[in-house]
Design brief:
With 126 residues, the protein is mainly β. It is built from no helices and 11 strands. It starts with a strand and ends with a strand.
Length: 126
């Protein structure tokens, strides 16, 4: 069983920045494509971006493109989500997720996820 633990959430003002971290327990971290999802109150959980197992390929949905950046450090078994120019509509619980496979031209589907983190709250005021 792989454990994913998110950290770095909190309260930030519009236009501010936040960096989320997701630490994985598995020693085979580099075998997984990693994604970030978010769920706002009353809305479906949505994939916001993903990164391939080597970090050589990324994908972002249009709503965050140019503002969010996903990176990974396989030596530390950690994936990051750097969020800049935050907006109130970014307010959500953010989840990291591990998938065996990813495909060009799209984000991840929930049914593709093998392991989920517990989530961390991000709140963007005004």
């Amino acid at each position: 069983q792989v454990q994913l633990v998110e950290s770095g959430g909190g309260l930030v003002q519009t236009g501010g920045s936040l960096r989320l971290s997701c630490a994985a327990s598995t020693r085979t971290f580099s075998n997984y494509n990693m994604g970030w999802f978010r769920q706002a109150p009353g809305k479906e959980r949505e994939c916001v971006g993903r990164i391939s197992y080597t970090g050589g390929s990324t994908y972002y949905v249009d709503s965050v493109k140019g503002r969010f950046t996903i990176s990974r450090d396989n030596a530390k078994n950690t994936v990051y989500l750097q969020m800049n120019s935050l907006k109130p509509e970014d307010t959500a619980v953010y989840y990291c997720a591990a998938a065996a496979r990813a495909y060009n031209g799209r984000c991840l589907f929930e049914y593709e996820i093998h392991y989920w983190g517990q989530g961390t709250q991000v709140t963007v005021s005004s």
